[in-house]
Design goal:
The protein is 37% helix and 17% strand. Helix 2 crosses helix 3, helix 4 packs parallel to helix 5 and helix 6 packs parallel to helix 7. The longest helix is centred in the middle third of the chain and has 35 residues. It has 238 residues and is of the alpha/beta class. Strand 4, helix 5 and strand 5 form a beta-alpha-beta unit. It is built from 7 helices and 7 strands. The two termini are 30 Å apart. It has a domain of 162 residues: HUPs (Rossmann fold), CATH 3.40.50.620.
Length: 238
């Protein structure tokens, strides 16, 4: 058995079969919750050849409805052992680092990039209802740079805390990289572009919506990446 070949003893492996399931996704989620299982791992693609590039229906539903569970989605080919951790700079984003150190940090020859996409400038900085005078524009440019600086400072703090956790878990500084970039095409698209161009094989990201009143819904960014990411292991952390 592959799991035993990786060092997991047989007494830690349990096989569960359910015959003639009417709702596979629901049964998998029920099994996980009944046994306090924190991570669900599954393949990306549908069963048919036509759907080999499309997220399978069961995988899609589990990823969207797994509120408290981390979901791993594997493609048939993984680009590399490079890891991209998409952090939003909030205190909660360090949950991604915690999950990585607990579950994935022991992968041999791993390299980790902590990555943040700075969101668009708020409308209050560009929608004044009139053309700014040179003096007003100069003042506004300074305000915008201060806004960027405050975002960068907050994200850098998260990076520093993440670095402490990762080095404490055994990674060297040579295995770590940090990237903060201003948004180009959109948060999801920029993450996907970085994932592809950097040939990352593992993407770790949060799944929940940041919208008020929707703390348990899958976020728009996560949903887009869920359906578009290729050649990687996608880890969606609650």
């Amino acid at each position: 058995m592959i799991l035993q070949e990786t060092g997991i003893s047989s007494d830690r492996i349990e096989k569960v079969f359910r015959v003639e399931s009417d709702n596979i996704a629901e049964d998998i989620l029920d099994e996980a919750r009944a046994n306090n299982i924190g991570t669900i791992a599954m393949g990306r693609r549908g069963m048919s050849e036509v759907k080999r590039f499309v997220l399978g229906g069961v995988s899609s539903r589990i990823a969207q409805e797994a509120v408290g569970e981390t979901v791993w989605i594997f493609d048939s080919e993984i680009a590399s052992r490079k890891v991209l951790i998409a952090l939003d700079g909030t205190p909660q984003c360090l949950n991604l680092i915690d999950h990585f150190t607990q579950a994935l940090v022991r992968i041999p020859d791993i390299a980790v990039t902590m990555y943040h996409v700075i969101p668009p400038i708020p409308a209050t900085y560009w929608d004044d209802g009139h053309i700014l005078s040179p003096e007003e524009q100069k003042k506004r440019d300074k305000e915008i740079e201060q806004w960027y600086a405050s975002i960068t400072e907050r994200v850098q703090k998260a990076f520093d805390e993440g670095k402490e956790k990762l080095t404490a878990a055994g990674l060297s500084e040579g295995q770590l990289e940090f990237k903060i970039e201003r948004m180009k095409r959109g948060p999801a698209r920029d993450i996907l572009d970085t994932l592809e161009k950097g040939e990352y094989g593992i993407l770790v990201m949060g799944r929940q919506s940041m919208a008020k009143g929707k703390p348990y819904a899958i976020g728009g960014r996560a949903y887009k990446i869920l359906n578009a990411a290729r050649n990687c292991m996608l880890c969606m952390v609650p």
